[in-house]
Amino acid sequence: MKKISWKAAVISLSTAVATAVALWLWYEAMPLVIGSEFKDAGATALPFVALSVAATLFSLTALFVKKRILAYGSTVAGASMLFAFVPLARASALPIIFSLLLAVYAVNRIRRDTRLSLGFSAAKSLKSGLPIYFTVFSLAVSLLYLNRLDEERALEIFFPRGVFNYTLHILTAPNSPLGGLFAQYGELSPELTVNELLLQLLDKELASQGLGIAGVPHGELARLVDAERAQLARVYGIELRGDEKVGDVFYAAITGKIENLFGPYRAYLPVASAIAFFLAFKTLTLVLYFVTLLMTFLCVQILTRAKIVVHEKQKIEVDHLALDHEPAGKEPSVVPMPEAGDSQATTHTRVPRFTGWNKIKPPPSADNN
Q1: What are the DSSP calls for 162-227, one per residue?
Q2: In this structure, are residues 269 and 155 in contact, taking their beta carbons and an 8 Å threshold?
Q3: Structural contact between residues 85 and 36, judged by C-beta atoms closer than 8 angstroms
Q4: What is the distance of C-alpha 272 from the center of its chain?
Q5: Number of C-alpha atoms within 13 angstroms, CB side, residue 166?
Q6: Buried b (16+ CB within 10 A) or exposed e, 293-317
Q7: What gap in Å lies between CA 147 and CA 37, rounded to an integer?
Q8: What is residue 326's DSSP assignment?
Q9: Can you tell me whether residue 352 is helix, strand or coil?
Q10: Which of 132, 146, 219, 306 gives 20 to 30 Å between its CA and that of 208?
């Protein structure tokens, strides 16, 4: 049994840790994502950086680590952190298990392509498995997203608060593109309280009659505000104290109407939102894919110059289906590139592999074979 190289063990352990850390960062950043709060650029950019690092280490592990237990185990161990972040009572174990199987498949695709390639090409080998890895991570982040989501939050995703505030501005601003449909009431700020809004409307109504709000007795003014607030509460079917913000009141009323339209199907809103989030996140990983290819290329160059990986010749046997079978022991007609019809062919290729610092063995000569 071959001993496990300490360098292979280090890079495999780094892959597992980096994957777990990336999942943890996404778990911590998920409230910001759900709330669409992207003011803190560091908090939202750090998870993407961690994902790029994890994907690069995953690529190096799949390309260079020969031990299956390290190559497969490092990725599975890191992705298994999902069990710590997603309670099984809330999300079924089936999506997590499916993610782990996809991770194993991604490693297998890269290892197989590397093993059968006539020359070393990180971009070519990673093309067969790295997109699957990003699919696994997209599914994992979507599970984290679903775990933090409820019906109310899911409804906010379909009708974001920022969209509502902008719509309110468009409808009330005098210089808006729509000409200010409610400009007669003045521009409504979402930060106004209900009582402040009612006082503002009463002031405009009294001004239209040639009166001023300053001339109305305080008790009478309070009675008018209470009456208008009660009327507003009856119209929207909600309770109002007067200190609520206008934006919160109108937004709750609109989302309540939308929720009633969904009826019993509103229970599926979180799942539908998670599916939409998965598709959006998977699209973003296209950029990370090319970033990972570049980072992997740079890492390979650094490892090669540091003699941590070196070029070595390897013997590769390729098995093909053939119409005319050559007898066993007969040399192929062309070496090393066989013509179409040969059942087996043998060639050599130079592939970077982990090796000792100062114990680089020369490739075996043809006489020793």
Answers
A1: HHHHHHHHHHH-TTSTT--TTGGG-PPPTTSBHHHHHHHHHHHHHHHTT--GGGS-HHHHHHHHHH
A2: yes
A3: no
A4: 16
A5: 6
A6: bebbeebbeebeeeebbbebeeebe
A7: 18
A8: P
A9: strand
A10: 219
How many residues can be counted in the chain? 369
Which single residue is written with the structure tokens 């809103």?
269
H runs (alpha helix) in the chain: 6-34, 41-64, 68-79, 82-85, 93-116, 122-126, 130-147, 151-158, 161-172, 194-208, 218-236, 246-262, 269-305
Q: Using CA atoms, how far apart are residues 288 and 294, in angstroms rounded to an integer?
A: 10
User: How big is the chain by its Cα radius of gyration, in Å?
Assistant: 32
Q: Note the Cα 337 to chain centre separation in Å.
A: 44
How far is residue 37's CA from residue 52's CA, in Å, rounded to a whole number?
A: 22
Q: Return per-residue pLDDT of the chain as tens, 369 residues.
A: 567 788 888 999 999 999 999 999 999 888 877 766 555 555 678 899 999 999 999 999 999 988 889 999 998 998 888 888 887 655 567 888 888 999 999 999 999 988 887 778 888 989 999 999 999 999 999 888 888 776 666 666 666 666 676 676 666 665 555 444 455 555 566 677 877 777 777 777 777 776 766 767 777 778 888 888 888 778 777 777 778 887 777 777 777 777 777 777 777 778 888 888 899 899 999 999 999 999 999 999 998 888 887 777 777 776 767 776 666 555 555 444 444 444 444 444 555 655 544 444 455 554 444
Q: What is the pLDDT of residue 158?
A: 66
| Cα–Cα distance measured from residue 46 to residue 43, given in angstroms and rounded to the nearest whole number | 6
Q: How far separated are the first and last CA of the chain, in Å rounded?
A: 22
Q: Rounded CA gap, 316 and 346, in Å?
A: 6
